[in-house]
Amino acid sequence: MSLNKEYIKKNFKQKLTSMFAEDINELNKYQYFEALSSVIKDYISKCVKNTNKYYLKSKQKQVYYFSMEFLIGRLLESNLINLGIRDICKDALSELGINLDEVLQAESDAGLGNGGLGRLAACFLDSMASIGIPGHGCGIRYKYGLFEQKIKNGYQVEVPDNWLKNGYVWETRKSEKSVIVKFGGDVQLINENGKLKAIHQNYEPILAVPYDIPVVGYKNNIVNNLRLWSAETIDKDFDFSSFSNGDYLKAVEYKYSVESITQVLYPDDSTEKGKLLRLKQEYFFVSAGLQSIIRRYEKMKLSLDSLDKYIAIHINDTHPSVAIAELMRILIDEKSMSWDEAWRITTNITAYTNHTILTEALEKWPVDMFKKLLPRIYMIIEEINRRFCAKVFDKFNGDLNKVNKMSIISNNNINMAYLSIVGSHSVNGVAKLHTRILKKQELKDFFEFYPDKFNNKTNGITHRRWLIQSNPKLTDLINELIGEKWIKHPLELKNLEGFSNDKSIQDKFQHVKYQNKINLSNFIKQKYNIDVDPDSIFDVQAKRLHAYKRQVLNILNILDLYNRLIENPNLDIIPRTFIFGAKASPGYFLAKQIIKLINSAADKINNDRSIKDKIKVVFLENYDVSLAQKLIPAADISEQISTASKEASGTGNMKFMMNGAITIATLDGANIEIKDAVGNDNIIIFGLTANEVIDLYKNKNYHSRDIFNSDQRVNKILTQLTNGFLGVSNYEFNSIYDNLLFNNDEYFVLKDFAPYVEAQNRINNLYRDKNKWNKMSILNIANSGVFSSDNTITKYANEIWHINKIDFNNKLLEEN
Ligand SMILES: *Cc1c(COP(=O)(O)O)cnc(C)c1O
């Protein structure tokens, strides 16, 4: 069976009839989307079957990527691209009078993540399938994903993201593969034939039902699996006898409380709330995932002693770190394994990625809460800690201070990062600088104790979604110049370097960027009725709103530039359009006020005729994967201006680079590696270094008020925040003002202000030389291949998971 045009047309029409029983002309775009996706899914399902058959038969080692978040976005187009049939489908639909692009837009985003961490998991899945790694996702099927952001009167308003309201074509419910997860109850240790045995009683059993989403590899017939778990009541326990007792409401309330476990994604990015429901979510999907992995393994009739030869588990940050204790529980309590053997297997299987050094993001659970919800798991963590502390005591010659510092349990809290390190064979940071800071500072004691565990794996992005899918014009141009080999071998993008000095080719790149800017301008005009000039510089900062990411620094520069324009409307600058996209956590007041500030500045500036449209400010609401795909190809400038040392890696920076934007950046996270890849001349670097930041924290000799007092520009802008200049009450921006002045500007916004303004002026002058600018842009694209997650995943597979790539096309031919 081949996926040609006739196949698509025929099956699409049949689907429309069987699904909707109406004439094709009576149906809407969403129905077209559902039918086409269903045709594609039918095809994919056969690949799923074949892939699994092969995995089982060959007993290939599998890796399971455990993550609280998978920010996958839309799937129809990426599936069409990976199957190699986007153009075929476009033609097929066009012959039926239907525009494929409009159909693609009808899909809603699967927004099961907050930002970078969740998007990384999605990029990794795409790369694993595409390069032939048997790797699967394990996560939660949240009924509500990340909230939808609306802007009302300049303020963020959150609307629930009811993404499942029309069903979800890509998922398959697998009721028969459900497992039971146990909460609460009490545990007794009894002596059975000289062995301690744990008896867990009076627990609450919750049914975990898996929903599988296929992950299609790029033109290789491999389809891996993303398994998301949903919480349900066990029917027999949904006790209808209570109904007759007049407790009907109780019964329904119970059902509701069970389902609440997978009801909603926590919208906190980089903040840890320590909430019971969150802990329930974590244990729920981890326990369900592990149970199903063990069950599948046992189907292969292999001994559990060699589990670590066939299985790898990766935990994406500490959220799934209870996996360590849960695997111990299964092996010891359910499979009667000894502690030592279970520990050997567990640590060989598990690997951990650390994503942040922000203290407010490090997960800690109060012992009392934890013990009550997971009594047996707590006992196991205590024992892990007891044995670990004894080893620390030995190694550091009885240094109790060290033991106290490194103990997994201390001050009535369980430190999940420490548990993750102790229970894994690999601990990786996500960019060189981040890994260095982990080793030298945040996790120094652990690095000294386990030097061989620590390693770096710089994050990456899938070039299939972030270039081929989001920027088809650029993709065509690249193919025209260097062929298509780079698609399977992204490092080959390097071959573009040879064209960077060629003026006629520079013009072609410039033209692609211009077309993308026109598309974005049209979108902005249509949605916000703001006129933006595609000839202006598109300067973009799009990422979650957080103080450390310093959207405030960006807006302060804009206000300064505005002040200069008011003073001198003929100021010789290249017109600029400043574009923002950012969701703030609903409970993060300062972040929400920063959104209001951006919008207030936008109102004031966009409506001031005196500055002759030289600058515009646009805040795009609801920054999600689909908006990112529209926005990034149109960017001239990528704003990566976090306080050095705070952004562990960043991945937005890589997406912009791959689409030819020039980065203005601090030396933070992967920005440093971007600089190394493109060279100093092709990136704009400014501001404090990580070491300087760390020293300033240590020496406490930063006083933001000094800058307020000495820099006229800063003084003027901050005064404008509180004197009604922006058309709001004098008190509106007190939180921002106080943060910068009274709380001493924790993220050194004022300290980096002057260097940032200077860097922005450099950009203005660089852009005047279009040849030079285009050359820089081409060199950025040409050197972005190292940031393909295909490279990142190859390193994870070789150095952490010890899994070889499979060449499935050949295997499949052998079979048939
Ligand atoms: C890539 C991406 C992010 C991460 O951006 P950073 O700049 O690395 O913080 C967040 N949200 C979405 C929708 C993304 O696509």
UniProtKB/TrEMBL annotation:
GO MF, one annotated term: pyridoxal phosphate binding
Catalytic activities: [(1->4)-alpha-D-glucosyl](n) + phosphate = [(1->4)-alpha-D-glucosyl](n-1) + alpha-D-glucose 1-phosphate
Principal location class: cytoplasm
Subcellular location: Cytoplasm
UniProt-listed InterPro entries: Glycg_phsphrylas, Glyco_trans_35, Pyridoxal_P_attach_site
Extent of the signal sequence: none
Name of this protein: Alpha-1,4 glucan phosphorylase
Organism the protein comes from: Clostridium fermenticellae
